[in-house]
Design a protein that fits this description.
The structure holds two protein chains of two kinds.
Chain A lengths: L1 H21 L2 H20 L1 H4 L2 H22 L1 H10 L3 H6 L5 H7 L2 H21 L8 H23 L6 H15 L11 H8 L4 H13 L3 H35 L7
Helix pairs in contact in A: 1-7, 2-4, 2-8, 4-8, 4-9, 4-10, 5-9, 5-10, 8-9, 9-10, 9-12, 9-13, 12-13
Chain B lengths: L1 H15 L2 H23 L6 H30 L3 H6 L4 H16 L2 H13 L8 H25 L5 H7 L2 H7 L14 H5 L2 H14 L6 H33 L6
Classes of the chains: A mainly alpha, B mainly alpha.
Chain lengths: 261, 255
């Protein structure tokens, strides 16, 4: 256990340095954050045409929360990228599971999602006229980031096996989350089977909890929803664990780990 | 012209075989549902065309930005940029032809959007002026090609430019009024929006479907053409300047 944690910690440091190398502070702030803020604003602005102020505020909180889920979900395509770099054969011959490596490798995305979503909230809140218990925002966003990270690791376990579909899968899953997760409209407007699907995915419960915290402050209901969000994340984490094991062992047995597409 | 045709055909074949290219197109399906779930939840069937048009223009603009950027980036990483710089045919023309190929292909999101809307919300739409619709859509596609290239040319300059390039996506869609018409945005934002060809394109396309009479048609078509042409001109100029610069500084192959 301590060895796994040590590996995860070192991998997390590598992941952090990797993110640092991708951006300069200028390209992060004036490139990426401008884009992400405009995306939240784009969907929030729907309220100007339909739904009025209610939709403006609903979509604003929903889309900010979706940003917190997006970065951790990126674990999927980023892990596939790692395979392209040729890291995998080394990990397969190593005696330990790959999960602590990839689990740590992208752990910084949890922080990134939390920080970016909070920053976008701070930038836009005065313009959309948000009033509520804003100080509860980080708590809700953290639960959402963690929940999405579990699913991100599961996407990683698939993407690493099928390198070329990593990005497509990420996009489809992310847009599905914002479609049915209660971001722009409440999940209850969809048919029952869609609502049950949303129950099993991150964002839905976290967002319900976050909305309640922002509106009425802490309550059993709100923390219950955040707890469900974490539970969903843990569920996907466990499935990812099996996925990584199957991939590594399957690839080791038939010698396709670095060749199969 | 032969070079442009060859580049166009090559990119068409390449796109058909690249899963990443289809990413934007496939993402259209959930996006259609996002817009429809909103107009359905607030009981606004009059906004049907807004909900149909937004995912179409979003996919076309994203395609131009992403593929346009990756064309130049891949040329550089694969060491083809030097060959292009030495070739007698302007690089701008080659990139334009390649971006045009993927934007043309992205028109497939029109039937995809209609099919998704029909399958999920049972939508059946009647078009008031089909000819105006087709002309406006094609001109908008051409303007998307010309203007999108401005951002691909920037990717030659630096790695950070990729991030800046992606920052062009949503601000343009917002100012382009692809879902919420420009007229509903704050007053100070409207003049900026009028400089974005997309705002003329999306207004005209919506009117061609819903309005009994499309007013000031020649002027509105001209606005798309002129702004698209300006975008195209700026992009061609930028490609030349940027290529000249990296040749002069010896950084043509630098990552």
């Amino acid at each position: 256990m301590t060895a796994a944690l040590r590996i995860a910690r070192n991998a997390a440091l590598v992941g952090y340095l990797d993110v640092r190398a991708q951006y300069t502070w200028k390209s992060w702030l004036f490139g990426w954050i401008v884009r992400a803020t405009a995306q939240v604003l784009f969907f929030t602005a729907m309220g100007l045409l339909v739904g009025g102020r209610d939709l403006v505020l609903f979509a604003f909180v929903g889309n900010v929360a979706a940003r917190a889920a997006q970065a951790p979900l990126g674990t999927g395509p980023d892990t596939a990228w790692e395979r392209g770099l040729g890291t995998l054969p080394l990990l397969v011959v190593a005696p330990r599971s790959m999960l602590p490596v990839f689990g740590g490798r992208s752990a910084f995305y949890i922080v990134q999602g939390l920080v970016e979503a909070s920053l976008i909230f701070v930038i836009l809140a005065p313009f959309v006229g948000f009033s509520g218990n804003w100080w509860w925002l980080p708590v809700g966003l953290l639960a959402i980031s963690l929940g999405a990270y579990g699913l991100g690791l599961f996407l990683a376990a698939i993407a690493i096996r099928r390198l070329r579909i990593g990005n497509i899968l990420f996009n489809l899953v992310f847009y599905t989350l914002i479609t049915i997760g209660g971001v722009n409209v409440a999940t209850s407007v969809f048919p029952t089977w869609v609502q049950r699907t949303a129950d099993l995915l991150p964002l839905h419960h976290g967002l319900l909890g976050l909305r309640e915290l922002l509106a009425t402050g802490p309550s059993r209901g709100a923390f219950g929803q955040l707890g469900l969000e974490l539970l969903v994340g843990v569920g996907w984490f466990l499935i990812a664990l099996v996925g990584f094991r199957l991939f590594a062992e399957g690839g080791r047995r038939d010698g396709t780990i670095d060749l199969e597409e | 012209m032969n070079a442009a045709a060859a580049a166009f055909k090559m990119q068409l074949r390449l796109a058909l075989r690249t899963p990443n290219y289809w990413m934007v197109q496939i993402s259209t399906i959930p996006q259609v549902i996002i817009f429809f779930s909103v107009i359905e939840a607030f009981d606004r069937p009059d906004l049907l065309i807004n909900a149909l048009l937004a995912p179409i223009l979003m996919a076309m603009w994203s395609t131009a930005l992403w593929t346009g950027g990756s064309v130049v980036r891949d040329d550089r990483w694969m060491g083809r940029l030097e060959l292009h710089a030495a070739a007698p045919v302007g690089y701008g023309l080659v990139v334009t032809a390649r971006v045009a190929a993927v934007v043309m292909l992205s028109l497939l999101v029109v039937p995809l959007t209609l099919a998704t809307a029909w399958a999920t919300y049972g939508i059946d739409i009647r078009i008031a002026h089909p000819v105006v619709l087709v002309v406006a859509l094609l001109l908008t596609a051409a303007a998307i090609t010309g203007t999108g290239m401005i951002f691909s040319s920037m990717t030659i300059l630096s790695r950070a430019a990729t991030t800046f390039q992606s920052s062009a996506s949503y601000p343009f869609l917002l100012l382009g009024g692809v879902f919420v018409p420009l007229a509903l945005l704050p007053v100070w934002a409207r003049p900026f929006g009028r400089l974005v060809f997309l705002s003329w394109g999306s207004d005209l396309i919506r009117d061609s479907v819903t309005q009994p009479v499309v007013t000031a048609l020649p002027w509105r078509l001209a606005a798309i053409v002129v702004l698209g042409a300006v975008g195209f001109g700026v992009a061609q100029w930028l490609v030349r300047v940027v290529l000249y610069r990296v040749r002069a500084t010896g950084e043509i192959a630098a990552p």
